[in-house]
Amino acid sequence: MIGIIGCGASGMLAAIMAARSGCKVTVLEHNDRPGRKLLATGNGKCNLTNEDQSGGNFRSDLPEIAQTIRGQFSKEELLGFFREIGIPAHCRRGYWYPQCEQASAVVTALAEELRRLCVRVLYGVDVVRAERSAEGGNDGFIVTLNDSGITRTMRFDQMVLACGGPAGDRLGQSDFGFRALRSLGVPVMRYQPALVPLVLERTGVDANADIAGVRLEAELTLVCGTDEYREKGEIVWTDYGISGIPVMQLSRYAAKALNDRRDVRITVDMVPDFTADEIYQEVMSRRMNPVFTERNASEALLGIVPEKISNWLMTRAGISAKEPFAKTSEAGLARYSEDLSGLTLRVKGLRPYAQAQTTCGGVPLSEVIPETMEIKAVPGLYVTGELLDVDGACGGYNLQWAFATGAVAGRALGRRNA
Ligand SMILES: Cc1cc2nc3c(=O)[nH]c(=O)nc-3n(C[C@H](O)[C@H](O)[C@H](O)COP(=O)(O)OP(=O)(O)OC[C@H]3O[C@@H](n4cnc5c(N)ncnc54)[C@H](O)[C@@H]3O)c2cc1C
User: Is there a single domain that holds both residue 241 and residue 184?
Assistant: First the structure.
């Protein structure tokens, strides 16, 4: 009997693949339904995978092993699998979604396939402990679960830990998997939120800036000591710092650097389609132009970035909004245009797991057999999905990873029990 802890993305794939090979499978899920996190993916549309499968999108300390694992369940296979269970997909700007754009259809199709294959799924059971049944032996695993207040145990010959990480908000997420792995003697690297907004140091003038909710296109450079990472796209200023897809993409590098106690800064170019010189010329030329010199500073500088941002940067530059633009100092305007094309703030931290989409860190890939997802030091124990040291970029990479690792584990269990 195979026990799978977690009826999420990777657990369902593992169960389906093992059951298709004739294995008896029981899935234990503490939510009252399957795939709650899956339902929330892609804003309810479920971004299944991405057209661009290049390795840099699957971030890990051991990317070559991640590549070996992914190669066994490619994007094409994933799309083929979903088509087979009634979910054709379509690609929008490189992002693959179910044709119907409903995550609920994906979850229903997976759950129906589990039912067709007679996989036993127990909902509302919280697994609280997982241990080997005979210390050091290959005699299977005992899991202790809380079933509506009643504690009971189950024994499995092989066990898949597919219980994801702590990222997400009220989706059933937990760090049980990491705790269970450590108690089973499996090394777990420090794990942190990833694909998460950043908390910035904003003191003095910056602390009082009324910019929460303002969105704009920007180019970001994250500087962690001597390392630099860049992203471009729409950002959102918030009361704690900064959010948006490009920020989320950079967050795992900030997480690692903060963890190493390195100084982390982010430079925000809020006018990425102009060079710094072009912006300086634009601002300075207004000062010579009677169309603008008759206005006050706030009015004269309108039109380059949203007004709230402009007002904030004016305050930073010592420019008073109401002062006649003709009297605004050149030094102030130079500082204003400098900030427009490269405002640097210190990154203080990350927002909590509730605002994260995934976890970085976890089980080092050197601990698993890449062809099976079995833990080398604990025969019979398999690990999938977010528990492993791979965090994908935004764009379907985390689900591709979860589905691929689930499929590899499920097929390996099928071969083992054939
Ligand atoms: C809001 C949000 C949006 C996202 N959007 C996307 C997207 O569009 N594309 C993408 O690629 N990725 C996306 N992700 C990331 C993706 O959802 C995860 O990486 C993926 O679901 C991880 O799969 P998993 O199988 O490891 O874990 P999960 O899918 O989280 O499944 C784990 C399951 O285990 C259960 N469980 C946990 N602990 C226990 C326990 N002790 N006992 C019993 N059951 C337990 C949980 O309830 C859960 O059902 C998003 C994440 C979030 C939070």
Answer: no
What's the CA gap between 378 and 391, in Å, rounded? 24
DSSP result, 156-191: ESEEEE----S-SSSSS--SHHHHHHHHTT------
- CATH number, domain at 46? 3.50.50.60
Domain extent for 212: 197-350
pLDDT tens figures, 369-382? 999 999 999 999 99
CA 396 to ligand 1: nearest atom: 11
Q: How far is the CA of 93 from the centre of ligand 1 (A)?
A: 24
Average pLDDT in the 353-373 region?
97
pLDDT digits (tens, 9 = 90+) for 104-157: 999 999 999 999 999 999 999 999 999 999 765 678 999 999 998 999 999 999
- At 134 the pLDDT is 76
Final residue belonging to a domain, choices 301, 323, 350: 350
**What pLDDT shows up at residue 135?**
60
Query: Do 74 and 95 fall within a single domain?
Result: yes
The alpha carbon of residue 181 and the mean position of all alpha carbons in its chain are separated, in whole angstroms, by 21
Residue 47 Cα to ligand 1 middle (Å)? 13
Ligand 1 atom 37 nearest Cα = 163
pLDDT at residue 204 in the model: 86
Sign of the Cα torsion 358, 202, 318, 329 reads negative
Contact by Cβ (8 Å): 82, 48:
yes
Task: Please tell me whether residues 187 and 201 are part of one structural domain.
Answer: no
Residue with tokens 């589905």: 403
Give dist(CA 197, CA 353) in Å, integer.
10
Q: Which residue has the tokens 């010592």?
A: 318
Classify residue 57 as left (phi > 0), alpha (psi -120 to 50) or beta. Answer: alpha
Burial (0-12, 13-18, 19+ Cβ within 10 Å), 17: buried
Mean pLDDT of 195-208: 93
Q: Do 128 and 176 reside in the same domain of the chain?
A: yes
Residue 34 alpha carbon, nearest atom of ligand 1: 49
